[in-house]
Specification:
By secondary structure, the protein is mainly alpha-helical. It has 10 helices and no strands. The chain has 2 domains: 1-79; 96-188, Serine Threonine Protein Phosphatase 5, Tetratricopeptide repeat. The longest helix has 18 residues, at 61-78.
Length: 188
């Protein structure tokens, strides 16, 4: 039911209500309803529906992971960084050897100004399966923000070693190299 989240959000709301009438206890339909409410910016109603479903099946780890992934969408829409951080910290326990949630946790920490913690999460992700190039890019971005330019350059070089055609990493590397050159007096 992709329409629940795209340009047909009103149509999806009607269809979801019809399904909920027929299947009031179906947690997947209710989760779609919560997501649809969030997309329509009914944040309090969406949060209430999400909370009602949070422990619908406490023994089912798959349900918990699905629920958390949907919950983070609401938290992102509401810009609720504290709830995002808590959710990503739990999500990393489901896939501790994959980059995705470590990178998202690191980005969330960085947005909150917790830069040293963000560095730790991104460093951890650089050695995992998935997208270590993205982890190196994010690591470099945080290091650059702290003015640790040589370390940032190394991170961007590592991102490019893994993915040579990575425009964001190329641009960031050029930026820090130019900053180092200017800082060291090699042109002004």
């Amino acid at each position: 039911m992709a329409a629940a989240f795209g340009p047909q959000v009103a149509k999806a709301a009607v269809l979801i209500q019809q399904y909920m009438t027929r299947y009031p206890d179906n947690r997947n339909i209710r989760l779609l309803h919560a997501r649809n409410l969030a997309q329509r910016r009914h944040f309090e109603a969406a949060a209430a529906e999400f909370r009602a479903l949070e422990f619908a099946d406490p023994a089912d780890d798959r349900w918990r992971k699905v629920w958390l992934n949907e919950w983070v969408e609401l938290c992102e829409l509401r810009r609720d960084e504290a709830s995002l951080e808590a959710s990503y910290r739990e999500l990393v326990t489901f896939e501790p050897d994959h980059t995705e949630y470590w990178i998202l946790l690191g980005a969330c920490l960085a947005r909150q100004g917790k830069l040293e913690e963000a560095i730790e999460m991104h460093r951890r992700a650089t050695g995992l399966e998935g997208d270590p190039d993205e982890a190196f890019l994010n690591l470099g971005v945080v290091l650059r923000a702290l003015g640790r330019l040589e370390e940032a350059a190394d991170a961007f070089v590592n991102a490019l070693a893994l993915c040579p055609d990575y425009p964001d990493a190329s641009d960031a590397l050029a930026d820090v190299r130019e900053a180092i050159r200017l800082r060291d007096g090699d042109g002004a």
